[in-house]
Design goal:
Blueprint lengths: L1 H23 L2 H6 L10 E2 L34 E8 L8 E7 L9 E8 L4 E9 L4 E10 L8 E7 L5 E8 L9 E9 L2 E5 L5 H4 L9 E7 L9 E9 L4 E10 L6 H7 L6 H5 L3 E5 L5 E10 L4 E6 L2 E12 L3 E8 L6 E10 L2 E8 L13 E5 H4 L14 E5 L2 E5 L4 E5 L8 E10 L2 E8 L10 E7 L4 E9 L2 E4 L5 E5 L2
Parallel strand pairs: 1-2
Antiparallel strand pairs: 2-3, 3-4, 4-5, 6-7, 7-8, 8-9, 10-11, 11-12, 12-13, 14-15, 14-21, 15-16, 16-17, 17-18, 18-19, 19-20, 20-21, 22-23, 22-30, 23-24, 24-25, 25-26, 26-27, 27-28, 28-29, 28-30
Length: 496
């Protein structure tokens, strides 16, 4: 009896040791997860990898991202680049649209797969997929909108193709459901300029579900090949034809652009790396449709630190500049909010003149954020926007020197500052600054050049007059306005 107990005890010890070895060496992963970790299987990429999708994927470098998870596994070799979920229009669980690169795709065109819940089998199934005109994964956006006015929400896919042209593919659910074709393609536009959905106001009866609404036209802007001016454009309007069920060309018109010295224009629009980025490296004020400058809304592009600052409605938003793609008339930027990483913003910039640009900004509509500011429109370079008769109450840049507890600080008209201690040049600290106004407060933002993480090394101060100089009180600027941090103020005394 004692021998049997001793044998059982020794057996338990041996099994326990083997189990520890089994878990510690990771053999359990090879048995249970070998299929899921196979590099040849379906993969999901993270936001940071989108810009590199034109290069072959390397095993071991692909990361999983829960934000791009699909309802069911994709097929082997398919690379997921975007996912859009929406409530089903048929009262069943939500449906999902997955943008992916097929395994056997030679031209890297993005495809859309439709996943919906099968009530009979009680599981999600892949019902259908369709190719789009886009090919650059980092530029893909998907959203749902009632373009026709019949509450049959279309799926709109925008992006850029291999020629860096803007594309828009519109998918609409079949009114008479086809067995294998739940959606149909009603528009596919590719052009070397921009593509805009021209929304119009719809009646109260439409909003209340009583009647249908007017359909939206689509405007596409491309190069005027018959003009010698590179900024002249052709506007093509597409309208929905109820008889054919697709968008058809309605009219074409010429739009004259600004007259700019053509050699300089070709240089800016050459597509060479960094050229247009360096051109927009500045502070830009919003210009109203009436042509007046609004210093309460501005943008600051900082390609060196890979940041874009949006300021409007008294709030400042900082976005990481993830990637940019040259276009026929400027640049297309993908950016990510530094605080809310799921919030993406796509900025399409077109050159208007050497001191003005036009923006079209697309939010990632999967995240609903209440905001009143519209970023679309024209912007003028700060030094060109501030004119004697329209000069704002706060100059964004000055040329002055002050003594302070920091040392001697010099603000340069270029938007740079230097701080020296004891007049020793090699102790100088440098950075960029901007004066602005928010919530009826005059503010100063300073961004040191060296060290720190982009977006986390900037300081904002409330500027108060002391009679002969300035007082700087550290504040935090956010959605709740200007908040005092109650730190001792720094006094600036002008250098005589």
């Amino acid at each position: 009896m004692a021998k049997n107990s001793l044998g059982f005890f020794i057996g338990v010890i041996i099994v326990s040791v083997l189990l520890i070895i089994f878990l510690a060496t990771g053999l359990w992963k090879q048995i249970f997860y070998s299929k899921a970790d196979d590099p040849s299987g379906p993969v999901i990429i993270t936001l940071g990898e989108l810009a590199n999708l034109n290069m072959p994927n390397q095993p071991g470098q692909i990361l999983r991202d829960e934000n791009l998870s699909t309802k069911i596994p994709m097929q082997d070799g398919e690379t997921v680049v975007a996912v859009f979920n929406r409530d089903s229009e048929e009262g069943v669980p939500e449906e999902q649209f997955v943008a992916f690169i097929p395994a056997s795709s030679s031209d890297r065109r993005i495809n859309i797969a439709y996943l919906s819940y099968d009530m009979a089998d009680r599981q999600y199934k892949r019902q259908w997929n369709e190719a789009t005109a886009a090919a650059r994964a980092e530029t893909i956006t998907m959203f749902s909108q009632d373009l026709i006015g019949d509450r049959n929400n279309c799926i709109v896919v925008t992006g850029m193709n291999a020629r860096n042209e803007h594309t828009m593919t519109i998918l609409r659910r079949h009114i008479y459901q086809a067995a294998n074709e739940p959606f149909e393609k009603i528009a596919e536009i590719q052009i070397d300029g921009s593509i805009i959905i021209q929304e119009v106001a719809r009646s109260v009866a439409y909003q209340q579900g009583i009647t249908t609404g007017a359909s939206f036209n689509i405007a596409a802007y491309g190069q005027d090949n018959l003009s010698n001016n590179l900024l002249d454009q052709i506007e093509t309007i597409y309208s929905f034809n109820t008889d054919s069920g697709v968008y058809e060309q309605l009219r074409v018109s010429r739009i004259p652009g600004s007259q700019i010295e053509q050699r300089r224009l070709r240089e800016l629009l050459s597509g060479a790396p960094g050229v247009f980025e360096n051109f927009i490296n500045d502070l830009w004020y919003y210009v109203s449709p009436q042509g007046t400058v609004d210093s309460r809304q501005y943008l600051s592009f900082d390609p060196g630190n890979r940041e874009i600052i949006f300021f409007g409605d008294g709030a400042q938003q900082i976005f990481r500049w993830q990637s940019s793609t040259p276009t026929r008339y400027g640049l297309y930027i993908r950016s990510q909010n530094i605080s809310i990483t799921t919030l993406l913003r796509f900025v399409d910039i077109e050159l208007e003149s050497l001191d003005s640009i036009k923006l079209r900004v697309v939010e990632d509509v999967r995240l609903r954020i209440i905001a009143n500011t519209s970023w679309d429109g024209s912007y003028r370079r700060a030094r060109a926007a501030v004119q004697p008769d329209t000069e704002p109450s706060v100059r964004p840049r000055v040329n002055a020197q002050y003594d302070s507890t920091w040392g001697r600080i010099q603000f340069l008209a270029s938007g740079e500052y230097t701080i020296t201690s004891g007049n020793i040049a090699n102790t100088a600290r440098k950075g960029h600054y901007v004066f602005f106004k928010a919530d009826n407060h005059e503010l100063l933002e300073m961004r040191p050049e060296e060290g720190g993480v982009p977006g986390e090394n900037r300081m904002v101060y409330r500027v108060d007059s002391t009679g002969t100089g300035l007082s700087l009180a550290r504040v935090r600027l956010g959605t709740n306005g200007v908040q005092d941090l109650f730190e001792p103020p720094v006094i600036l005394t002008p250098v005589e």
